[in-house]
């Protein structure tokens, strides 16, 4: 987890869920939902936040600072005040019967509400207790949250709130680690809502104490920072060597293409355009008429370049992995036999991962590339 800093969760399951695709791209022999064993079985990780992500359990004190600060949100504070009895009821239910999900509360015994978080008052109450840090996620059942009291889940020594300043420093270092290199023109990372000025001052503070190192990036304006502990990695890369810790344990991305998840940090939120010149926007929330590519398009990594994208879907009625659309960045890539073979192996890997019995390559153009890829899957 440290290499990616967090695992963003999403409930959509078109081909596979985004978090599983992200781990499939990185972990040899990874199986869907295996992350849940480490999070909920071994309690090594926890998930929290409106911007939902799984994070190492030892980071809990820093995120508890945000949980406590949530109580000062005027809208949430008013809701807590108006529903104090309901919150007490949910705490007692968890204490006496927990773990519990919203499904454990019968509709005919609850007050109906009109909320994005559910149709029962119990759903909203459990969600808000989670936002406040009073409860945590015990498990997930088909992605639905199962809650329990925090003291039953987190180690006692981690149930405290880090100071505001320590949290700011920690989150900025985490953000720089996530980006690899960070400029000084951006705002404070999520969670947080600080402007450019305070963020820049914090970067300078961390550079002054040696936590960060300021570097110049050719072709880009302004100051950039990286973790000082990452300097040896940068030195190896500048000598055109791949650090030993980065060497793949299985197939390389030259041998088999990798399909990146929609929320993968390589491609999400405009990073692929800025870093790799690959324009990518997840169009799942766009109206049909405004989509350029498709509903669940995944970037394709071959070697160290993003060379194509594919609109994929697992048809669960026929158990078929369908390639609904396929687009190359450069037409010449489609004439490369090595790419066709790597595409075929990557598709075969994905087919096995999602458990599809069949693979439909109808959406792959040109036909010659489709035929080469089909041969490579066999």
Describe this structure in words.
The protein has 378 residues and is an alpha+beta fold. It is built from twelve helices and 15 strands.
- Spatially, the strands of the biggest sheet line up as 11-12-13-14-15
Largest sheet: 5 strands, mixed
Distance between the termini: 33 Å
Tell me the overall shape: globular
> Element order, helices and strands?
EHHEEHHHEEHEEHEHEEHEHEEEHEH
Rounded to an integer, what's the Rg over CA atoms?
A: 23 Å
Could you state the oligomeric state of the chains shown? single chain
- Output mean pLDDT: 90
Structural class by sheet pairing and helices: alpha+beta
The count of helical stretches stands at: 12
Query: Roughly what percent helix?
Result: 25-40%
Low-confidence stretches: none
């Amino acid at each position: 987890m440290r290499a990616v800093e967090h695992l963003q969760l999403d409930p959509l399951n078109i081909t596979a869920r985004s978090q599983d695709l992200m781990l499939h791209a990185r972990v040899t022999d990874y199986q869907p939902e295996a992350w849940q064993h480490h999070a909920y079985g071994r309690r090594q990780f926890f998930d929290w936040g409106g911007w939902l992500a799984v994070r190492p359990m030892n980071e809990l004190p820093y995120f508890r600072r945000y949980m406590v600060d949530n109580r000062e949100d005027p809208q949430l504070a008013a809701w807590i005040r108006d529903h104090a009895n309901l919150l007490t009821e949910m705490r007692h239910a968890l204490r006496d019967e927990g773990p519990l999900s919203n499904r454990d509360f019968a509709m005919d015994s609850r007050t109906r509400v009109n909320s994005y978080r559910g149709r029962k008052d119990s759903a909203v109450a459990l969600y808000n207790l989670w936002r406040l840090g009073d409860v945590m996620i015990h498990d997930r059942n088909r992605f639905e949250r199962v809650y329990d009291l925090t003291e039953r889940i987190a180690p006692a020594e981690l149930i405290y709130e880090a100071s505001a300043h320590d949290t700011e420093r920690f989150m900025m270092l985490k953000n720089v680690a996530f980006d690899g290199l960070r400029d000084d023109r951006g705002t404070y990372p999520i969670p947080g809502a600080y402007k450019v000025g305070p963020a820049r001052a914090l970067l300078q503070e961390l550079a002054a104490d040696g936590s960060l190192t300021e570097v110049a990036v050719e072709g880009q304006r302004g100051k950039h920072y990286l973790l000082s502990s990452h300097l040896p990695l940068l030195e190896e890369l500048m000598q055109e060597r791949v650090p030993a810790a980065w060497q793949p344990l299985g197939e390389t991305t030259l041998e088999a293409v990798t399909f990146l998840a929609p929320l993968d940090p390589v491609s999400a939120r405009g990073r692929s355009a800025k870093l790799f010149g690959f324009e990518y926007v997840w169009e799942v929330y766009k109206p049909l008429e405004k989509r350029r590519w498709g509903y669940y398009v995944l970037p394709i990594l071959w070697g160290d370049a993003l060379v194509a994208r594919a609109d994929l879907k697992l048809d669960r009625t026929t158990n078929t992995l369908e390639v609904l659309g396929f687009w190359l960045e450069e037409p010449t890539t489609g004439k490369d036999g090595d790419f066709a073979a790597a595409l075929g192996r990557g598709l075969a890997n994905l087919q096995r991962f999602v458990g599809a019995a069949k693979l439909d390559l109808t959406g792959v153009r040109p036909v010659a590339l489709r035929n080469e890829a089909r041969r490579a899957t066999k």
